[in-house]
Specification:
The protein has about 325 residues and is mainly beta. It has a single domain, classed as Outer membrane protein (Lipocalin), CATH 2.40.128.140. About 10% of the residues lie in helices and about 45% in strands. The protein has a 12-stranded antiparallel β-barrel with strand order 1-2-3-4-5-6-7-8-9-10-11-12. The radius of gyration is 21 Å and the shape is globular.
């Protein structure tokens, strides 16, 4: 608990310094940053369920990097956005109430990470994102301490079997994501959009690939200015009136996973003492969400349904993500 308290203290201190620094930049007209906070939890579904992917918290700063990238009408690239992100993900069995070791149908696991990302937005509506993350699974992820702290604060059941969680391992992962516009978006038609999507992750924590289709409907900007791709940042924001965005999206995907350390344990070293599982190779997931953006603010509510990612899991998992972002 002391380690968690120290960690939370430094996270709060870093967030305060970041907000103060970005606010100073805002006073001098440098509106090139976005602070984003997202929280994911299965309890947001109001189904009194607490298991599988049970909690996620992410803090991200997006910004326009100082790159000499040609983005005029002759070139294909419109905008480049860089980001830094820190996050924690928590996984538990289907239920933590009166749990015994033989009832653990999904390994206890946590994933704590930092990430550097670059997003490239192209004139024809295509988007490419690259991410490199450094993280930790196992007790060093502080997932157990976080869950105990939250459950004590809200007078919930305290899980007893975190001693069976996956072992510590440092993970380095590379992720590529690509959105390919299938229906050209014109100035006169901004109510519907369709993208083919692809994603690949390679590292010693996750190895997988997925493909899907992204449907978007409502009032929204082109991808290079849309909040869906975190692209509302402008180098000269004061000279451009941002369109109010209010839209929904539906994103079904199929994923093939080769390795998942939160399910199978670490690659290197012994996993003795952990209760683990094999992965389900094929995983279906869909995300349904609604987004509202006006001026500097963006708010998003997204529901996710995901089929079993571990052979031992009894059911599919579902959770809701709440996101808010503010441009500075």
């Amino acid at each position: 608990m002391q380690a968690l308290s120290r960690t939370l203290y430094w996270v709060r201190k870093a967030a305060y310094i970041t907000i103060l620094s970005l606010s100073v930049c805002n006073l001098y007209g440098q509106q090139r940053y976005e602070l984003k906070i997202a929280s994911a939890n299965d309890n947001y579904c109001l189904n009194l369920h607490d298991g599988y992917y049970t909690n996620g918290l992410f803090i991200c700063v997006n910004y326009l990097p100082h790159l000499r990238v040609a983005t005029d009408s002759v070139h294909k690239l419109v905008k480049v956005i860089a980001s830094y992100q820190a996050g924690q993900m928590m996984f538990t069995p289907e239920s933590i109430r009166n749990l015994s070791a033989d009832q653990i149908d999904r390994p206890f696991a946590g994933y704590l990470f930092i990430q550097k990302g670059m997003t490239f937005l192209y004139r024809r509506g295509h988007v490419l994102t690259t991410n490199v993350s450094l993280g930790m699974i196992g007790p060093a992820s502080l997932a157990q301490q976080t869950q105990v702290l939250i459950h004590r604060a809200f007078d919930l059941n305290i899980p007893k079997l975190w001693s069976y969680q996956v072992k510590n391992e440092v993970g380095l992962n590379l992720q590529l994501q690509y959105w390919h516009e299938l229906v050209p978006l014109s100035q006169s038609r901004r109510w519907f959009d369709l993208h083919g999507t692809a994603q690949m992750t390679l590292g010693n924590t996750f190895i997988n690939g997925s493909a899907g289709v992204l449907f978007q409907w409502g009032r929204f900007e082109k991808p290079a200015q849309s909040s869906l791709y975190e692209a509302r940042l402008e180098r000269h924001a004061s000279t451009r009136n941002k369109v109010v965005e209010f839209y929904g999206f539906f994103h079904p995907t199929y994923q093939y996973q080769v390795y998942n350390a939160t399910v199978e344990g670490r690659i290197l070293g012994s996993n003795a003492g952990s209760i683990l599982s094999s992965v389900e190779p094929w995983v279906y997931r869909h995300d349904v969400g609604i987004v509202y953006s006006q001026n500097r603010w963006t708010a998003q509510l997204m529901y996710s349904l995901k089929s079993r990612e571990a052979v031992s899991m009894r059911h599919a998992e579902q959770y809701i993500t709440i996101l808010t972002a503010y441009c500075l």
